[in-house]
Amino acid sequence: MEKAVGSPSLGCSYPQKNAEILSSQYGINLFLAGLLLTFAWAVHAVGISKSHLLSYLITLMLIQLLWMLWYLCRSCKQRRLIRDKDTHAGARWLKCGITLFAVITLVLDSFKIGYYIDFSNCLSPTEGIFPVTHAVHTILQVYFLWCHAKDIIQSFKTLERFGVIHSVFTNLLLWTNGVLTESKHQLNEHKERLITLGFGNITMVLDDHAPQCNCTTTTLCSIFSQGIYYLYPFNIEYHILASTMLYVLWKNIGRKVEHHQQHKTLFKFHGITVGMIFGLIILTSTIAIVVVYLIQIGRSKIKSELALTMFYLHAIFVLALMCTAGIVALLIYRLEDRSLDNSKNPARKLDAELLVGTAAGSWLLSWGSILAIICAQAHPKYTWYNLPYSILVIIEKYIQNLFIIESIHREQEKVNDDIKTLRIVTISRGNTLSLTPLYKEIYNDRAARADGEVPCLFKGSMCGRENGGGAAKEETSHENSSVMHSGSDFSFCSRNSVTNHKRRILKNIAAFLFLCNLSLWIPPAFGCRPEYDNGLEEIVFGFEPWIIVVNLAMPFSIFYRMHSAASLFEVNCKT
């Protein structure tokens, strides 16, 4: 009988597991084919042109558009088909973030369309079709994620698995294409900067795949070509965020959800003034450093060295502050006794894996710089600042990952049950009086407790017997005195005060680290990359090997900062 009962569940789960494996293999092969095509175009493989790569990407986007339209139509016709929702997936702030990046991506597509029009005489038609298709794809995908990112699909599961995984790897390929295009632009300026620093022995011809014809309107062409590369960082972040949200949707297909009350997490500026002020100072100074760096680097040897020194000193100071803040937060967690939430949560698991996985990109670059400094025979003065900078990058990410992962796994603090059900019993004249404050009165004092004040639980909440008014007051006074002397019944007041102070410190730390991560995202995203411009690593490892390492690791390093900022925003809301 036990076998008979168990067999249906096994029969149901086995095909679904197969569908998951098959769909994941389909997505990986789809991605590898596109990755190889992208690589072939980048190295000028015989018979492979940019039009072949763009045609492949256009085909993938059109297939995803058809699937999303089918899903949206089916959802509208059968509104009761999908009932369960994953409350942890597709947070509102995440949707707002991806919408912002999508709007800037649409601006990028419009620039590409204008660029194609100006160079239409020598560009393939696919270069004009691609931005149009991409713009339509972006609009529909953002709408789809706003409406259905929380869905837990329970019908047509096999078909939906292939549709969602197709969307995941389509976005990853679009991300790869953006990273490659942006990296090629960075490399075009890289060699000139190295020559100004005195590394003239490095020789390598870099090709930027520029159009082989003249522009119809020179001014517009210059605006479009320069604007495109400044907008690529937002396009890159958009596609990686979309792929992660779609991956969570794919993991949730067929999932059984435990229905429990979900606490709303709202962002509040109250109580985080200190963290915001220091964070904004770091953000403002970082923007100023990036502007000066981009202006000075490559002008002359002295100016380039000063720009690199300035960057390293500022980064060392910021990373040291972040390490200190992270250590303080972890010490506060060690002093608290709160259980961790180990329930199944695909979104939270993906967040933790992405933090550790993408941090490996920065760690790889940092260890490369450390080895280069140790092994190099000649050391220009500015390269010595790279050593503490690289060490702090490793330590800071290690500490910050511990803080974020523990924060997202900690159970949300609930209202103390003692406050809800508090009943004070006293003995008077051999009778038991039940002195129960009104539920509303206790909860009206929650704001006072948040500021560390002790709530007045007895104000107007005691009732005497219908004796004389004076006797009742005297009895009430006596009972108040006896209750207030029993400090053990009100120890939660002092505990709440300490807890509130700890919570306020943690919220300020999360706000400070949030702005610091945004600050550290800006330099590499907009071309301030000392890993390229330092020159020492190229001498030790060779130009081509180090450039390959940087081009592989830098996208993960950039994504890490944005993902950390998003995670810290969630931590601030939960704390």
Highlighted features:
18 helices; 2 domains; mainly alpha; 2 strands; disordered N terminus; two-stranded antiparallel ribbon; 575 residues
Give a concise summary.
The protein is mostly helical and 575 residues long. 72% of the residues lie in helices and 2% in strands.
Describe this structure in words.
With 575 residues, the chain is an all-alpha fold. The chain has two domains: 242 residues, no CATH class; 225 residues, no CATH class. The chain is built from 18 helices and two strands. A two-stranded antiparallel sheet has the order 1-2. Helix 3 runs antiparallel to helix 6 and helix 4 runs parallel beside helix 6.
Q: What is the C-alpha radius of gyration, as a whole number of Å?
A: 30 Å
Number of helices: 18
What's the average pLDDT? 77
Return the domain count: 2
* Class by SSE composition: mainly alpha
CA-based shape = globular
The share of residues in extended strands comes to under 5%
**Sheet of most strands:** 2 strands, antiparallel
Give, in spatial order, the strands making up the sheet with the most strands: 1-2
Helix proportion range: over 70%
> Cα distance, first to last residue?
49 Å
Number of strands: 2
SSE string, helices as H and strands as E: HHHHHHHHHHHEEHHHHHHH
Show unreliable segments.
Answer: 1-11, 415-477, 481-486
